């Protein structure tokens, strides 16, 4: 409990005390009435200022990371998007929860090189290409990387 201790900081408009309450609960905040009081016993503190609630210290608690968006490439290096959520908010002066930027992150994934492309069939349309005429090349195979 607090008592008649001198303030740790003071000027003409404010005074600041430091104290420690180790028990969770609601406490009355009182001021010593001074006039004729020694301010040495609890009964001298007659001016009621209000109530103060001391809460249990609870740190922010987060979930584990989960994959919110799978890797955007099967090989050759991509990005996977991870998220986590707040399971319990801080209270009583506990460690605070991160902002939105601390609840999401991107990591590199599928860093192994892609296999070399294999062309099985290549053909043109029309089958005979002539100078000055448009044509399309169709290529079929495996492991093409369109990016």
From TrEMBL:
<dbReference type="InterPro" id="IPR000884">
    <property type="entry name" value="TSP1_rpt"/>
</dbReference>
<dbReference type="InterPro" id="IPR036383">
    <property type="entry name" value="TSP1_rpt_sf"/>
</dbReference>
<protein>
    <recommendedName>
        <fullName>Spondin-like TSP1 domain-containing protein</fullName>
    </recommendedName>
</protein>
């Amino acid at each position: 409990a607090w008592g008649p201790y001198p303030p740790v900081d003071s000027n003409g408009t404010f005074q600041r005390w430091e104290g420690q309450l180790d028990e969770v609960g609601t406490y009355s905040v009182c001021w010593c009435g001074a006039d004729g009081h020694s301010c040495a016993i609890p009964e001298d503190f007659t001016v009621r200022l209000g109530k103060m609630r001391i809460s249990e210290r609870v740190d922010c608690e987060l979930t584990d990371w989960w994959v919110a968006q799978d890797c955007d490439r099967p090989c050759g290096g991509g990005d996977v998007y991870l998220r986590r959520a707040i399971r319990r908010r801080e209270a009583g002066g506990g460690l605070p929860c991160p902002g939105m930027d601390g609840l999401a992150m991107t990591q590199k994934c599928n860093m192994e090189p892609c296999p070399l492309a294999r062309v099985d069939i290549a053909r043109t349309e029309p089958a005979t290409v002539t100078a000055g005429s448009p044509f399309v090349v169709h290529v079929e195979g495996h492991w093409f990387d369109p990016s």
